[in-house]
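Each letter names a residue; the fold follows as C-alpha cells. Both lines appear below:
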Amino acid sequence: MQALLTLLAASLASLPVQSPQTTPEKSTAASPDLDAKPAAVAAPKATGGLAAELGALRLRRLGPGVMGGRITDLAVDERQPATFYVATASGGLWRTTNMGTTFEPLFQDEAVVSLGAVALAQSDPKQLWAGTGEANNRNSTSWGNGVYKSEDGGKTWRHVGLARSRHIARIAIHPRDPDTVYVAACGSLWGEGGDRGLYRTRDGGRTWENVLSADPRTGATEVRIDPIQPDVVYAALYERIRDGYDTNAPLTRWGKGSGLFRSTDGGDHWTRLTRGLPTVELGRIALDIHRSDPRTVFALIETAWIGQRPPGAPQQEQPAAPAYFGVQGMADGDGGVVLQQIVRDSPAAKAGLRDRDLLLSLGKAQVLTADDLRRELGKHKAGEKVELKVIRRDDFVVTTIELGTNPATQANARARGGFADRLHGQNANVQGQQGPRGFETGGVFRSDDRGETWTRVNSLNPRPYYFSQIRVDPLDPSHLFVLGVSLHRSDDGGKSFKVVGRMVHPDHHAMWIDPRDPRHNILGCDGGVAMSWDRGDNYEVYDNLDIGQAYHAVADSRRPYWVYAGYQDNGSWGGPSQTHLHEGITSDDYFKIGGGDGFVCRVDPDDRPRPVEAGCVPSTGVVATSWRARSSQPQADRRGAPAGRGPEPRAGPRGRPAGGGPGRGGRRGRRGEGGRRGEG
C-alpha cells in the first residue's frame, strides 16, 4: 500500500507594529482573537477502501527510548521538591511526583508542544502556567501560540492569551498573589511585530497589559520579582531577528531596543538601569536575584563588543594549542571509547586508527569513557608521541600516534584574540586582560543595591543568543552558575569560574537550585534532565524521558525494515522495526551512525539484506558510514557488541524497551552522550 502524506499548513496573520513605550497601554482588555483557544485543525477524511486501510494503521514507538532532548525550563514545588515540571523544546510538558523515578506527559493535546517557559505558583501549587514557543533563538527553534494556564496541576489547560507572542522566555508569578503574573514575550524570531515585550495580568490571565516594550523588533527575554518586596520587578528587553540567510547566530542580536529595566511599583513605571553597565549596544540579558538578600542581583549581559579586544587592552600572547587527536566523534563503549569519524590526514588517521575502533588506553592511562579520553588529551601537547591500545573487531592492536595541532583551531584562536569563544560568546576569567573598557564586552555583573549600580565581576558569557542563563545560590552568593555548552560554576562570587558536571550531556538551558539545601540542583540540557547533590560536581542523569528530537527518519527496504534517524544534538541512530525478543525492540538494538547534530540519513536501496550504506549529514558535514547488518537478530560477541559490526556505543540499558511510554519508570544513571561533540 502506498504511503499517504498529508501536509496541513496554517496561514499566519500579518503582525501589527508596536509603538515604543515604557508605561502600560491604556486599554487592558485583551482582544478576542488573542485569548480564544485556537480551534483544532481537522485532518482530511479519507474515503472508500483507502479509508479502511488507513484506519487499520496504528502508531507504535520504535525508540530509542532513552534519547533525551532539549529542556527549556523547570518548575519545582518547593514545599515538595519531589514534584517538578519539565518544559521541553518540542515534547510538551512533563511532571514527576517521585523525584524523577517516573514522568508523565501533561501538555500533549494542545495546539502546540513547543514550550519556552513554565512557572508554578508557590502560594498555590495547583496553578501552573506554560509559555509556548522556545526562546533559544536557534534556526531550528519552534514557535508557539501564547500562554496557557492550568488550575489543577496540569491535568487540564486553558489558553489565556498572547497568541502572537510566538516565543515566551520567562514567566514570573507574584509570591503571594497567584493572579498577578508577568510574561516576557519575545515576539517572532523571523519577523517583526506581534505580542512583544513584558505583559502583566492581575486577574489570572483574563486581561493583559503591555507594561514594557520598545519597537517591532524588540521583545522581552527576562523578568524577575523581588521575593521580599514584590513591587520591585526587573526585566530585560532584547532586539533580535533572523532571516533566511543567517547561519549560526541571528542576523541581529543586539540593538538600541535592548536594555535592563526596573520597576518599583509592580510594573506601572520603569527605569532603565545604566550605572556601571556597558554603554555600547546590548544584546540578550539574563538575571537572578539572591533570595536571602534581594539587594544582590546578578546579570549576564551580551553586548556588540562581545569577544573583542577593547581599546586600551594589551596584546595577548596566544595560548598553546591543545593536542589534536583527529576524530569528530567518540562515545562510551564496553571497556573503552568508540572512535567515530576519523578525520582524513589527521594524527588518528596517520596512526592507522579506523572508524568504530575501541580505544582502551592513551599512553599509560586507561580510558573507559569519552570524558576520560578528553581529560587525558588535555595533559598532552602537540608533537608528543603516545602509545594507543585498541580493539578492532576481534583483533588487539597496539599503535603509536603523534599528536598534532588543528589548523582550524589555531586560525580561530588567532581571530578571537583569546577573548571570544568559538560560538559567538566570551571566555571566562579574562576580565583582567581586557583593559579599562573591558566591561563594554559584557559578562557577569553584580549589584548590591537592587540594580542602582553595577560592577563587572567576570568576562564569561557563552553563546548568549542560545543560553543566557545565570543562577545564584539562594543562601550563599559566592556560589554562581552560568549555563552554556559547559556548566560553569564560581565559588568566589564570580571572580573565577570553572567547568563542572562534565559527565552530563552538553548545552544547558535550565536550572533550579533548592532553597533549603543549595547543594541540590536540577539541570536541564539538550540531553534531558539531571540532578546533583554536590553543587554540580556530579550528576545523576534521568534516561526515562522519551523526548528525542528527530529531524528526519528513513527506512531501508529489508523485511522487517530498519529505521534510521538524525536527532538534535544526539547524533544519528539506526534500529530494527521488529526483533525476535519477547520484550520487543530494546534500546540495546540501536547503534550509532554519527555524532553531533544528526540530520538526514540515507540507505542504499539496492544493497540488501547484508551490506547497508548510510549517509548522515551532521552539524560537522557529510559523513558516510557503512556496516553489515543482518536480517536476523545478531548474536553477541565476547565484548557484547553485535556480531559483524564491531564494538558500538550503547543507546541505553540492555533489555530496556526502546519505545518507552508515558509514566514509564526506569533506571537512572550516567550514560554516554550521543550528542557530545568530539575534541576533533
Q: What stands out?
A: The first strand starts at residue 71 and ends at 76.
